[in-house]
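Re: [help] complex structure
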Amino acid sequence: MNFDPRYSGRNFSSVGTRPIRPDGIDKVTGRARYGADFNMAGQLVGRILRSPHAHAVIKKIDTSKAEKLAGVKAVITAKDLPDLTDGDAAMYDILDNSMARKKALYDGHAVAAVAAIDARIARQALKLIEVDYEVLPHVTDVDEAAHHHAPLINDQIFTEGLEEKPAKPSNVTKRTQFGHGDVHKGFAQADFIVERSFKTEQTHQGYIEPHACVASVNPDGTADLWVCTQGHFVYRQHCAQLLGLEASKLRVTSSEIGGGFGGKTHVWAEPVALALSRKAGRPVKLVMTRDEVFRASGPTSATSIDVKIGAKKDGTITAAEATLRYSCGPYPGSWAEIGAMTAFACYKLENVKTVGYEVLVNRPKTAAYRAPSAPMAAFAVESAVDELAHELGMNAVDFRIKNAAQEGTRASYGPVYGPIGIGPTLEAAKNHPHMKAPLKMNQGRGMACGFWFNFGGQTCTDLNIGMDGSVSLAVGTVDVGGSRASLSLVAAEELGIDYSQVKAIVADTSSLGYNDMTDGSRGTFSSSMATISAARNAIKVLRDRAAQMWDIPVDDVTWEKGHAIAKGEKYGNLSPLSLKDIAAKSGTTGGPIAGHSELVADGAGVSFATHICDIEVDPETGATRVIRYTVVQDAGKAVHPTYVEGQYQGGAAQGIGWALNEEYIYGKDGRLQNPGFLDYRIPVCSDLPMIDTQILEIPNPNHPYGVRGVGETSIVPPLAAIANAVSNAVGVRMTHIPMSPPRILAALDAEREG
Amino acid sequence: MVEVTLWGSLSAVAGGKSRHEVEAKDIRELFRKLAEQYPGIEPWIDRGIAVAIDGTIYRDTWSKELPKDAEIFLLPRLAGG
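Output below.
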């Protein structure tokens, strides 16, 4: 990578402004094409048969009757998706999750699929498929699953990370540990200790757009996939590997995306659609219903967390410890590991220990959800921190400021921090008018901090300058929150032209080099770095072309504010050449003008936020209302502040739903009881106040503009901030998320009964 | 020579030690030397290890140089949403 990513401290013309997004008109007029909006001539309708059992051996599948139904063009089972994963355990799990091979591992697990000429016939065909199950005992609760008497989900899994290799298989797939110092010594020094256990229920990302794709496999081995995804290059890799296709022959085009939040980071039904198309010889459209999205895509973990924190009378934390159990669905994951890393990341701790346990349950395969695993850990830790501040008689913000991590602090997950923003977000929260606003009866105020890592990754960008001087920017990171606008601003900034001269698109997998997906808050961070690099490469070409036009050495040409300048008094009579001037002559100065960049954008820089929340609780019904909510977060540099604010508000809104209402409810039969938005209630506009935001800009030293990722951190503090607000409103410590009205009433009743 | 600290689970496949002195100029050489000494670490490298150099986390830039006095910490390569 011949690119210097270091922060340069420059002044900006375009970056930091708030123009309208290029996809805005299409989205508000309904012209934007999402996953289900694409159609191909002769396409069939795909439908998936799903297990009604939480845990069952698939003894036999008879598809003969379905195959004979008029209008059915293909029926597939796991036999049509042979194992080509070559020992790649993670990919095997994705394959098995796409189509169960030996056992159905959760209610909703795919067992067969059909492609038919219309949806009615496809549904009829599903009813004609006969599956002979041997129903097995199941377990859906994370604590019950971790018990040694629990039904075993995979008898080939032995707990990793123990000192001695276990003799028996277990639903606990892995133990991980982080920390430093001596917590026993630290707790012995404490004057006050808070020790509590917390639970959070499983939630779904709740993206409005369901998983949808159109797959077309041709007889010559080429294939097309039009799909709603956070990473079309990753989907191409997955599908090519699972279907035995050459990656270069599978062209994947990402549609507009109606939300992903981590849930669209690996394939679910796409390999099934491709396998159906391959068998039928026709394109297949497959769109999940909302019921299927809940039952068979990837929600986040349910958790059970024990926290212990001790402090001296002066407010210094002496030790902190947490044990975190996270559900993974029926396949191993590293969700508790992330929780164990993030739990105490906001604090300067001499003695800290976290232990994570990954637990298999008969629920859908856990997927990433916006700062995955961090919100639950923050809920437990920040609740205990708040309680400890109360016991010490200290203001909750001052207690956090006293113990906040800073540059040079050893993070609880290991390394020493560089420049970080937790302190400034706390100071900003302390000084925010929200903190001083009066509260009414039955109202409580809470605050909490949050941490997330942020990532970079492989990135490739093309910048092409047309002969009219307009600029096409082709990026490979899916636009989930306005990144086309942000990246256009970056291109305009580098080239010194107006934002309106730049048009950004998300290119398909055959048009651009590989890009990692849009996850880990990397979209704008990574692609802006690649856009800066591509623009600088284009400027080199522009300077060369100007030199040709003037017939002077290229070293005598500089680029300033969108113009080539001949430097030196000897060129005093040469007027600057604009980008448009140079582009117009490109046909005779060497052909098209372009800049290309491929790089690994590392050094994303960790991110912190502090949230403040006011909640009103009706003590008779347990109903809650969010009165006021404020987000303070470090963005490094807000490229397009409106969309940074949008990320802050969106994370807070999702966190409010998670904290107060959302939860997967399983019956004793292991079946999901509420797979729809009527019974699984996400917040709508009328449930929320205007969410206030404050952007802090502490530059990331590893990005030329100082940019940090902003997409995920905003969902980390809300669970805790709201729990602290509710606890302060009702005078009872809330330890179970979501704090739905029945749960609040139960906590109040328990308190009254002593 | 650089001093490298491994997170708990990785230490278990590296002789039970969390701190190691390794003669390595960049991340690529560090991984190679560790794998030569502790073959059990190789599957972990394949699955993904992130390297924190003075607090900045690198996941993919294996050509990143390891300054002599830098604090180097190996971490699991994590998923984002």
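The interface with chain A takes residues 5, 7-9, 12, 52, 54-61, 63-64, 71, 73, 75-76, 78-81 of chain B (CB under 8 Å).
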